[in-house]
Each structure stands twice: as structure tokens, then as C-alpha cells.
Amino acid sequence: MIKEINELNLEGFKKIPNNEKAIFLPQCLRSRECKAKIGDRGIECLNCGKCSICEFKKQAEIKGYNVFISPGGSLVKKIIKKNNFKGVLGVACIPELEQALDLIKKTNIIAISVPLSKDGCVDTDVDWKKVKELCGL
Ligand code: SF4
Question: 16 C-alpha vs ligand 1 centroid, how far in Å?
Fold first, then answer.
């Protein structure tokens, strides 16, 4: 299902200006030693370099994307609503992505997603090459 939605939505996602798009990364991708605290925009990365989020976030922000590290689905909903984003790329485990895609399909937001390649609550991983490819990085 995720693959099909990506194929269907990718061209539309690419056409939206990057500053009108959000990328949501799950907090479980962080290092176990992460010292970042939670704020209104989710987990506020300190760019300590202990996990791959740091490098990705910098690259995506240079291209104009809004990048968030999400502690959970309810904050994602709030952030999307507040900022009126037109496109969203989500990284999460498959059950969370299914829930999110179900909610998003009732809106005009164009969403694509990448499931975690290793899930769980800590030490998760994602195919960063795939994430970068989808965002044109
Ligand atoms: S780079 Fe950011 S998210 Fe990763 S461990 Fe450091 S502060 Fe946490």
C-alpha cells in the first residue's frame, strides 16, 4: 500500500515548493544518548552528530524543507494543521504510517512515506538513501 501511494503521489509531492512541505522523522531514530528536549516543534535536535538525523536535517533544511522529529502522532497532527503544509513525507513504522496515511487521505495534503527498515522503540533505522531520493536531496 505504501509503495502504491508513493508512486501515485510522488510527482505531485515534487511539484510543491519545499518550504510548503514537512518531513517527519520518528524520535526512535535518535541516538540513545540524545540530549534533545521536546518543544512545540517536536524534539529539538542539538546537532550533536550522534545520529544520522543531524546530517539529513541539515541537508533537507538547506533545500527549504521543514524537518520535525516527532514524539508521536498527535503532535504531527497539530504541526500540520498549524502550518498548513501542502505535502508531507513521513518516516515511521508500518502501523504508524498506516494510521497517518488514513488520516491524511481525508485532506488535500499530498503524502509520501518511508517505513523504518528496522523498527522497535529504540535504535531504529531507515534507508536514508531512499528518503533523500524521495525529497530530491
Ligand atoms: S543529532 Fe540531534 S537527534 Fe541525533 S542524537 Fe544528536 S541531538 Fe539527538
Answer: 28
Cα(55) to centroid of ligand 1, in Å? 10
One digit per residue, pLDDT tens: the chain, 137 residues?
A: 889 999 999 999 999 999 999 999 999 999 999 999 999 999 999 999 999 999 999 999 999 999 999 998 788 889 988 999 999 999 999 999 998 888 888 899 999 999 999 988 888 999 999 999 999 99
- The range of the structural domain enclosing residue 76 comes to 2-135
- The amino acid occupying position 36 is A
Please count the structural domains in the chain: 1
Q: Which residues contact 117 (CB under 8 A, 6 or more apart)?
A: 125, 126, 127
**Element (H or E) spanning 89, and its range?**
strand 87-92
Pocket test for ligand 1, best of 48, 67, 68 (most atoms within 8 A of CB): 48
